[in-house]
From TrEMBL:
<feature type="transmembrane region" description="Helical">
    <location>
        <begin position="88"/>
        <end position="108"/>
    </location>
</feature>
<keyword id="KW-0472">Membrane</keyword>
<keyword id="KW-0813">Transport</keyword>
<dbReference type="InterPro" id="IPR004268">
    <property type="entry name" value="MurJ"/>
</dbReference>
<feature type="transmembrane region" description="Helical">
    <location>
        <begin position="344"/>
        <end position="365"/>
    </location>
</feature>
<feature type="transmembrane region" description="Helical">
    <location>
        <begin position="120"/>
        <end position="143"/>
    </location>
</feature>
<feature type="transmembrane region" description="Helical">
    <location>
        <begin position="265"/>
        <end position="285"/>
    </location>
</feature>
<feature type="transmembrane region" description="Helical">
    <location>
        <begin position="391"/>
        <end position="414"/>
    </location>
</feature>
<feature type="transmembrane region" description="Helical">
    <location>
        <begin position="448"/>
        <end position="472"/>
    </location>
</feature>
<feature type="transmembrane region" description="Helical">
    <location>
        <begin position="305"/>
        <end position="324"/>
    </location>
</feature>
<comment type="pathway">
    <text>Cell wall biogenesis; peptidoglycan biosynthesis.</text>
</comment>
<keyword id="KW-0812">Transmembrane</keyword>
<keyword id="KW-1003">Cell membrane</keyword>
<keyword id="KW-0133">Cell shape</keyword>
<feature type="transmembrane region" description="Helical">
    <location>
        <begin position="421"/>
        <end position="442"/>
    </location>
</feature>
<feature type="transmembrane region" description="Helical">
    <location>
        <begin position="226"/>
        <end position="245"/>
    </location>
</feature>
<comment type="similarity">
    <text>Belongs to the MurJ/MviN family.</text>
</comment>
């Protein structure tokens, strides 16, 4: 064999290492694509494609919705009715459960094997099913009082009654979504993002179907998209079932409050759920204030503007954050804090930089985009102008919201859910204060800006606080990095050996 063939091959250095690799061959069809494990960039790419598809379908849905219902009482009742179900779901399940479950599941799988990991999964699923059923029953009971006195006190009795009815129908949504969340968490922990990504894309299919029923079946009205919401979340659950079946799941009906793994999940879930709950309480506060705005189209305008702003937030904050989370959890569980720190700051830093041009694009292209997409049928030019005004405020909130989503993943990977809860509580109080403050100076049509600007100030200051706290936390953790400890031991050994030989 020649000397050239014996020479060791040099490893080509890639910025970011394996966790940031991107190979188009990993996206080839067949060969177990749904079971394939993806890097941060590959997983984020999949989720971004799904979110783009979902948002395009969401725009189609919103165009149909606006043409049918405009910014009138039915539309306002529908938007308001979604607040309580969304809050209850995210309080108990949603991202809160995913962030609490993944680190514990990975630790159990590594330390105790697949059997114990699946027992823990079964226990979490059983507990969640019972909890969401109880929440559903409580929500049905408190819906009238919540709607009349907290959510939309400034609306007419007829609008309150319609909102209450729609809320009670939509309360089935958290129960269905809760079961799907466990499946999403399992697939994400295995770094299998394809089916969770597809589930995001199919959500709007059910809603569009409900709107088409309203359009072509007389008398259905606003109940079409309301029941379409339930069909949408059912589709999200069903589309992930094939991926779950391929994981060789071992389900067992166990009920053990003393299970140590369940206690770890609950310890992380409690502050995590409170943090998410605090964020969604902010949406309820926005709706409460919007019900007193002089322009009756304000709530619908805010919803449409927020939907447009949600696309870059989802692409940058949600997709990248969801893909990054299991990788950070793996490094944290293995005690590789130096590598975790490098991974976190490279991805988070590059992602936040993207939010600035995205915010400028929203501000510049918002008006023609709203006119082109939404100004049809019952959605008149006045509603279009009001939506554009709200979008200018939401564009200012984009960097802070995306950064907050990404930074919170670093704390969850370290099994620290209390810090995000504290910072979210700060953001809620700041948001409430700024709403009161801005309403003193903004009047008439400009009053609608108080809602998005209050969000922008709260989200931006919260993200700055979280960045400082995460930087300090990771700096302290580096002292306990196992790789660095081994390197330091080897350095001491080589130094002692040199001294002995001298």
């Amino acid at each position: 064999m020649s000397k050239k063939s014996k020479a060791p091959r040099k490893r080509r250095m890639v910025w970011g290492g394996r966790f940031l690799r991107f190979k188009l061959s990993n996206f080839r069809l067949g060969g177990g694509l749904s079971l394939r494990r993806f890097s941060v960039l590959e997983g984020a790419f999949l989720l971004m494609l799904a979110l783009m598809t979902s948002r395009v379908l969401g725009v189609v849905r919103q165009v149909i919705f606006n043409a049918l219902f405009g910014a009138g009482p039915d539309a306002n009742a529908y938007y308001a009715a979604a607040r309580l179900p969304d809050t209850l779901y995210n309080l108990i399940a949603g991202g809160a459960l995913i962030n609490a479950f993944i680190p514990v599941f990975l630790a159990y799988e590594k330390e105790k094997g697949d059997r114990e990991a699946w027992r823990l999964t079964s226990l979490v699923f059983n507990m969640l099913l019972v909890a969401m059923t109880a929440v559903l029953l409580i929500g049905e009971y408190i819906a009238p009082s919540f709607v009349n006195h907290i959510l939309i006190p400034g609306y007419s009795p007829a609008e309150k009654d319609l909102t209450t009815t729609l809320t009670r129908i939509m309360l089935l949504q958290p129960l269905i979504l809760g079961m799907g969340t466990v499946i999403t968490a399992i697939l994400n922990s295995r770094r299998q993002f394809l089916l969770p990504a597809v589930s995001l894309a199919v959500y709007n299919v059910g809603l569009i179907g409900g709107l088409l029923v309203s359009k072509f079946v007389p008398g259905v009205g606003i109940y079409g998209p309301t029941y379409g919401t339930l069909v949408a979340v059912l589709l999200q659950l069903v589309v992930q079932l094939p991926g779950l079946a391929k994981q060789h799941v071992r389900y067992s009906f166990i009920w053990d409050f003393r299970h140590p793994g369940l206690r770890q999940v609950l310890i992380l879930l409690l502050p995590n759920a409170l943090a998410v709950g605090v964020a969604y309480i902010g949406n309820i506060i926005d709706t409460h204030f919007a019900s007193y705005l002089p322009d009756v189209a304000s709530l619908a305008a805010l919803h449409n503007a927020e939907m447009l702003q949600a696309l870059p937030v989802a692409l940058i904050g949600q997709a990248i954050g969801q893909s990054l989370m299991p990788h950070l959890a793996i490094e944290s569980t293995a005690g590789r804090y130096m590598r975790m720190s490098q991974m976190a700051w490279k991805v988070i830093g590059a992602s936040i930089v993207l939010t600035v041009p995205a915010a400028i694009v929203l501000a510049v292209l918002g008006k023609p985009m709203i006119h082109l997409l939404f100004q049809h049928g019952a959605f008149d030019p006045h509603a279009s102008e009001l939506t554009n005004l709200a979008l200018l405020g939401y564009a200012c909130a984009l960097p802070g919201l995306a950064a907050g989503n990404l930074l919170s993943g670093g704390f969850f990977a370290l099994k620290d859910a209390w810090t995000p809860f504290v910072t979210n509580t700060y953001a809620l109080l700041m948001r409430w204060f700024m709403l009161y403050f801005l309403f003193q100076f903004l009047h008439g049509s400009m009053a609608i800006l108080a809602v998005p600007l209050a969000l922008a100030i709260a989200a931006g200051s919260e993200a700055a606080i979280m960045a400082v706290l995460l930087l300090l936390r990771l700096r302290r953790k580096r002292k306990h990095d196992k790789g660095m400890q081994r390197l330091e031991q080897r350095r001491r050994y080589l130094k002692a050996r040199q001294q002995t030989s001298a």
